[in-house]
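It would be a great kindness if you could assist me with a short task in structural biology. The matter concerns a single protein, recorded as an amino acid sequence and a row of backbone structure tokens. Could you please explain, in whatever detail you think fit, how the structure tokens follow from the sequence? Thank you for your consideration; the sequence and its tokens are set out here:
___
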Amino acid sequence: MDEKLIQAIQEYAKPFDDLRDLNVLIKRIHKEKYVLLGESSHGTSEYYQIRAELTKRLIVDKGFTFIAVEGDWPACQRVNEYIKGWDRKSANAREVLKAFNRWPTWMWANEEIIDLIEWLKEYNQNQPREKKVGFYGIDIYSLWESLDEIIKYLEETNSPDIEAAREAIACFEPFHRQAEKYGVSAAFYGEDCHDEVVKLLTDVSLKRNIYLDNEESGLNLEVNALIAANAENYYRTMIVNDAESWNIRDRHMVEVLNRIMSFFSNQAKGIIWEHNTHVGDARATDMANEGIVNVGQLLREQEGNENLTIIGFGTHRGSVIAADSWGNNFKQMMTPPAQAGSWEDLMHKAGSKDKILIFTDENRVMFNETIGHRAIGVVYSPMYEHGNYVPSRISERYDAFVYINNTNALNPLKVVKI
């Protein structure tokens, strides 16, 4: 099998010598509603640089109107306000990125993303309001930050929904912003805040039209309320069912995308930046055997394969930013050569240069054998590299794949983490 795959890669892969070679991917995209850009780790410089260039091209050449990332909505909203010109206090993108102060800070507080943010701000200055590109975080973790944002806005506007928000935040106060403490209490002792956050979401959703203004306050309020409801469910579930908590998280991400689309009357087009494990269709991996779904699968089911393009990213070796355990400080680690027989190993053996592989009706069947595919998270240990491979049918998981033979660690900014 290895020799056949190597030959197929050599036949169909296109060289990726400089950023102009991304044209082959741009030409692949026509009327898609979403383009999903993956990464095999959250700490690799080249993935951010290449996705940034693809994002610029998709905005200029293909009319895409927002970027959705695997990040917190409140922190990403600071970026959104900056690039749309609503933030008149921040001097530059570097200052804005201080908002990303919750671990793992390096995912968005890094040098590589600064150029894209400044580019988006400059691009938006020449666009009418309805065509300004947005930047949104679609992850689920910002329970307390989202409640803070809700309280702040409702108090400023003297909203009648303020009591529901106060009841919700008061319910969570005994847990001192410790998600695990809340999860244990909710899962084992029945002491949860489910009713409070659902009431808050219902109240906000029913009255969302009264919060409309030129700075997307209605969308901001609604999504923060949605985060509160879904995060409560996530933290309650993760204590007893890891697979289902994953599903809650990825379904939440798609729900946020749908709220964004609805807010813009389904006229928007989204570029999604997330890990390969979220964007690459779960049905083409062993995740499906455990009943696990992800964003790529859910969007394909919702929109149809023809309305989105999924692009995976991977490397053979290099360095990466990660932590050795959850919540610890990040460090630069070496990424060892890919495991023998893995997808990344065969891409390397097909020629050690960078390359782009597009899957088509003609060649898809050649790449649909199950093969190990490397995935590195925010927690990583090179000593246990063998556990970092997801059995995958690559051409069913993605529509294209970008391979970088040697990659380098991301360059984190110094921020005060919480």
In short: The first strand starts at residue 14 and ends at 15. The mean pLDDT is 94.
